[in-house]
Amino acid sequence: MNVAFVAHDQKKKELVNFAIAYQNLFQSHHLFATGTTGQLIMDNTSLSIFRFKSGPLGGDQQLGAMIAQNDLDLLIFFRDPLVAQAHESDISALLRLCDVYGIPVATNMATAELLVRGLQRGDLDWRDVIHANQPVNITNRKETSADKRKNEEASLPLENIK
Prior knowledge:
- By secondary structure, the chain is α/β, with parallel strands linked by helices.
- The chain has a single domain (2-136), classed as Methylglyoxal synthase-like domain (Rossmann fold).
- It is 49% helix and 12% strand.
- The chain has helices at 12-21, 23-26, 35-44, 59-68, 88-101, 109-121, 126-132, 145-155; strands at 2-7, 30-33, 50-51, 74-78, 105-106.
- The chain has a five-stranded parallel beta sheet with strand order 3-2-1-4-5, sandwiched between helices.
- Strand 4 (74-78), helix 5 and strand 5 (105-106) form a beta-alpha-beta unit.
- It is globular and about 35 Å long.
């Protein structure tokens, strides 16, 4: 699964502690984050994270592009609801994209706990089905052995398929 982390300044320490607590789980996933948040998590864990730009400098929009391409499965975004953000429109756009594309998103520790427990149990595996059925630009796609097997099975009568 592709998991992204974002945190406003007053929530970064909380998100780092969350990442430390679930480090063993997160190690088996592909991780992304906005710049400073990702660096802080990497400085305090052994996790490897692909870092985008800082949120106000375009990182939120880069994550939004991942969502629009169906390349993100879970967003953990610890927001600070008590401080006005200069890039509020970017934040709103990011959360709107999560709603449009059905991306589970946690904006606080309580929801993050529930989603991560679900990730641990496999409750988010339905996202794999979406990835498998995502349209692909066939001019750039190479046929895999799994594709060949599916194509061969599709041409067989049903009684021959095991």
